[in-house]
Target: SprA family protein
Amino acid sequence: MELTDNYQNLSSIYQELSIKKGQLAKIDKKELEKSTFEKTDTVVLGAEKYDENDYQRVLNKFKNKDSEIRTHEQTHASSAATTSAINYNYQIGPDGKLYAMGGSVRFDTSIPNDPQSAKIKLEQLKDASSSVSSMSGADSSIAQTANLNKMLLESLKQGFNYEN
Model:
């Protein structure tokens, strides 16, 4: 008899939880509808202050920067082994579309144990990071580090000892 009462108590608790869950789902749905409405709300600029030439000029800047960033990162990615896909930083343009305003790609910087393979890989890293027309600070740093590591490998190959 006592066991049956416990099951009835548990059953009523589960029923109340189910009702509360349904109420929360309705609230979540209303909040989602509210946020969707706010996202599609638009601002209409005053006709006397709005210039189509300015709009087009700004839009062209966004498009050109997007193209430049994508070409830059794809050049890096095609020149050496990478450990991840290209990551882009986006900004919303005046037309409401996303445009790449920055990006990065992670090179595989692991060094093989074989000195000849290591030298080839370091040369690839140096070339990949400096293959673009306008190098960023990160590009320059990677190229310098790869070049220094390559010089270190060559000096070790020639028998220099740095343990003094």
Summary: Residues 52-157 form one domain. The CA atoms of residues 112 and 118 lie 5 Å apart. DSSP finds four helices and two strands in the chain.
